[in-house]
Specification:
The two termini are about 25 Å apart. Helices cover about 65% and strands about 5% of the residues. Strands 1-3-2-4-5 form a five-stranded mixed β-sheet. A two-stranded antiparallel ribbon has the order 6-7. The protein is mainly α. The longest helix has about 30 residues.
């Protein structure tokens, strides 16, 4: 199952500390904490002060402001010296006096101006001049810079509100809403905090799976089955657009999930772990071993009709696997997480091929021309460099309908659309900066002129210039993201928090009262469990070892053999696609047995993998 391994860290890694940070305001549990990484000579930091001042006035003791240094000497020569000056003043107990004095002073601010400011606030100039170049002062500034980099700070000002990075607008009313924390803002903030957790997607899946198991094993079971098997759509039962609830979730909504998979495949192949041939081969070969070996383990125990279930133990649920890796924290090297994520992308590709080739519905080749036309339409849109969304929406609908009519899993339309969205070269930031600055400067000039003439500034929003500026700012912001990135950002949360949980709810409702009296069903259960717990890690390990030994792939740097084994065991956590394959391979009775095997195998694989990874090991080897 795909997962975005490039999700930025929105949480403050280094929490505010009244003993070591520079704090303005009354420290209390009820206060709103604003941590700002700033540069005294940054013009944007200076502009932000005109917003922070009235916020402090209106919020009073409810606002605690924490200043941290992040000087950009290359962009603002003298920024390091100004930061050291505030720390030299702090040694005499006057940090915020110097902080305010530097920000209020017109640029440029050099050593002479700093000495004048120090004299103006009554500092001991001899001591100040000595401390300005002292090692402890330099170390104090560098400590903030290191902490900023750990927190993902790349520019100034970067603001964290109550430990969560603030990416909203910097105007007074937007920031006041974020700091006052009305109900809507609290809900939005809580959602962002939860979404920033590496385990959030896996947790939602786990909860929905448990809810489905509860519904399927309590008096709610009849209601649950009626809801999942209800026919929805256009036309009579059995017509093209009349599917059960399960069908719409697995073949309809799942298109969004496959769209994200396709976009992630493209990203990994262009800028991710799959760009370098040798680096890409390790997770690809490992994924192939992780498909072939569990399939062989399953087939060793199953013959005849039961053999149709061989693909069930081959899919990896990276959402759960990465969630378990995240729970282990810094003990897991980042390279191992990237490997597992890349393996899952390759695993998803193999799973999609398996679905298309081995589990088609009633195959109707008469609809092949319609499929070809829809694919040609996608190709034409790509060649024409069409960036608007609506043509792809129409082409997606046409592709989905034609695939569904032909009997191929229509959810694959999502992958085809993702691969068809045209790439766009990264923009040069200079012209975009000029465009945005021009629009904002025009608005600022108009507002200044209106105030000079004592006109109502609120009416500026009705003037044509305001709309012109808004269009230019929107165009500049939109150009920063490629069409694929915009699509991924728009669809990704829906896939993670709506589509996958709904599918998990429909697919994991397995009754524990399954009948295992027949040897065939026992073999299905055993083959699925052993395929996940034994076959999957052995396949990943052996294939990886062969790839490295033959020189086809490069080994993972900084990853111990034990850690690699643990990650390989976690790959045995079964995917929701495995549940979908169970429904495609078997009648309801046997499908329930296979799903039970997926759940049992996933729990065992997760426990074994986590136990292996949690153990300490002093020696380090390369996997």
């Amino acid at each position: 199952m795909a997962h975005d391994s490039n999700t930025p860290n929105l949480r403050l890694v280094q929490p505010a500390d009244p003993e070591s940070d520079h704090v303005r305001g009354a420290w209390s549990d009820e206060a709103v904490f604003v941590v700002g990484y700033e540069d005294f000579l940054c013009p944007y930091c200076r502009r932000l002060r005109s917003v922070m001042r009235p916020l402090r006035d209106i919020l009073g003791d409810r606002l605690v402001y924490v200043f941290r240094h992040f000087p950009n000497e290359r962009a603002h020569p003298g920024a390091n010296l100004a930061a050291r000056a505030s720390e030299a003043a702090a040694l005499q107990g006057h940090f915020f006096e110097m902080h305010d004095a530097i920000f209020d002073r017109e640029l440029p601010v050099g050593r002479t101006e700093l000495l004048q400011l120090a004299a103006g606030i009554g500092l001991d100039l001899s001591r100040f001049d000595h401390d300005l170049d002292s090692e402890p002062v330099r170390a104090r500034v560098e400590r903030d810079v290191r902490a900023g980099r750990e927190n993902g700070v790349t520019g100034t000002p970067t603001i964290f509100v109550d430990g969560l990075r603030y990416d909203g607008a910097w105007d007074y009313h937007s920031m006041l809403e974020a700091l006052e924390r009305p109900v809507a803002a609290r809900v939005h903030r809580s959602a962002r905090v939860f979404a920033s957790l590496p385990t959030s997607g896996g947790l939602i899946l786990l909860l929905t799976a448990l809810l489905a198991l509860f519904c399927a094993n309590t008096p709610l079971a009849p209601l649950y089955e009626r809801a999942m098997n209800a026919h929805l759509g256009i036309g009579p039962v059995g017509s093209l657009l009349s599917l059960t609830t399960r069908g719409w979730l697995s073949e309809g909504l799942f298109t969004l999930f496959f769209l994200i998979v396709g976009l992630e495949i493209r990203r990994e192949m262009t800028v991710g772990a799959l760009t370098s041939r040798r680096a890409a081969l390790l997770p690809i070969v490992a994924a192939m071993g992780g498909v072939v070996t569990p399939a062989l383990v399953y087939l060793a125990l199953n013959r005849g009709a039961a053999a149709r279930g061989w693909p069930i133990p081959t899919a990896t649920d990276v959402a759960f696997s990465l969630a378990l890796l995240a729970l282990l924290g810094d003990r897991i090297p980042s390279g191992l997480r990237v490997f597992v994520a890349a393996l899952a992308v390759a695993d998803d590709m193999l799973s999609m091929v398996t679905l298309a080739l081995f589990f088609p519905s009633a195959f109707a080749p008469v609809y092949a021309p319609a499929v070809a036309v829809s694919l040609l339409a996608l190709f034409a849109l790509n060649r024409a460099r069409v960036y608007a969304r609506w043509p792809y929406v129409l082409a997606t609908i046409a592709t989905w309908l034609s695939l569904h009519a032909m009997g191929v899993d229509a959810a694959l339309a999502g992958v085809l659309v993702a691969l068809a969205v045209p790439a766009r070269p990264r923009p040069a930031t200079g012209p975009l900066l000029a465009q945005a600055a021009n629009a904002l400067a025009a608005l600022d000039q108009a507002e200044t002129e209106a105030r000079r003439k004592k006109r109502d500034t609120s009416r500026l929003e009705t003037e044509p210039m305001w709309e012109w500026a808004a269009r230019n700012l929107s165009a500049a912001a939109e150009r920063l993201l490629s069409p694929a990135e915009r699509m991924e950002r728009a669809v990704g949360p829906w896939s993670t928090y709506v589509v996958l949980p709904l599918f998990a709810f429909s697919a994991t409702g397995v009754s524990f009262a399954v009948h295992l009296t027949s040897p065939e069903r026992l073999h299905i259960l055993a083959g699925t469990v052993l395929g996940l717990v034994v076959g999957k890690p052995i396949g990943v390990l052996v294939a990886s070892a062969v790839a490295v030994a033959t020189g086809l792939a490069t080994p993972l740097e900084g990853v111990t053999f034990r850690q690699f084994v643990g990650a390989a065991c976690l790959c045995g956590v079964g995917d929701t696609l495995a549940l979908l394959m169970a429904d495609r391979a078997f009648a309801p009775g046997e499908a329930a047995v296979a799903k039970l095997g997926v759940l049992m195998g996933s729990i065992i694989a997760g426990l074994v993998g986590t136990t292996v990874l949690a153990q300490r090991q002093a020696t380090s080897t390369r996997a």
